[in-house]
Amino acid sequence: MENINKKPKVMVLGTFHMRYTPDLHRVDFDNLLSSKRQEEIRKVVNGLKNYNPTKIAVEVVKENDNLINKEYQQYINGQLELKVDEIHQFGFRTAAELEHKNIYAVDWMESVGNRAISQVFDWVKIEQPDLYNLIDEKYRSKLQLNLDDRGIFELVCNYNEEQFIKKQHEMYMQVARIGKGTEYVGIDWVRWWYQRNLIIYSNLAQITNSSSDRTLLIIGAAHVYLISQFLRESGLFEVVSVNDYLK
After folding, report:
1. What does the angle CA 30 – CA 32 – CA 62 come to, to the nearest 5 degrees?
2. Neighbours of 137 (CB within 10 A)
């Protein structure tokens, strides 16, 4: 009989995007298919397998669940070469080696009439240059990590350290200050950011529906703070530290 007092576990792996995305900060990297980088990726996958997830969720919009699972089935049937993509390199590998039948798309990316983050920064650079410089120098430059100084495994560990996670969220609180008078330019984007992460949380809650579930979410590191907060504050889940399994 299932223990109703036992909370299902969720581990949120914050990672860098191996493909191009219009994020506030990105990682510069070399050939991730080289033997050296593949060994580093293997080390991350081994750590994720130590957690022994029962379900793996990825940063793909929910509408594309069938599409990403079609790719996953092609991969486990030997019909697909892994792309340079964290969903493939971390998600597909871990799920296949644990013999999962499918993975779960949980993201949301619809517009709600908001400004894009690039538009917010174009505005603040002209209208509030001091705030722009603060965000750029204190946050964006400090959060810009690369593989020249560390390997993929170390980089992923850095992204999941509490101090780094808090620093990312702190930057978005500075973005919320962008604007003048009743023109809330930064909040126009931040409200979308909160909505996106709340929807990801809701989608995670839908698939993490048994006390024996051990869900793994693989997602850009900027999401870790809010999604973990929503999971904890729900009172329904135990949030597991990534670095307990990677280190």
Report:
1. 120
2. 10
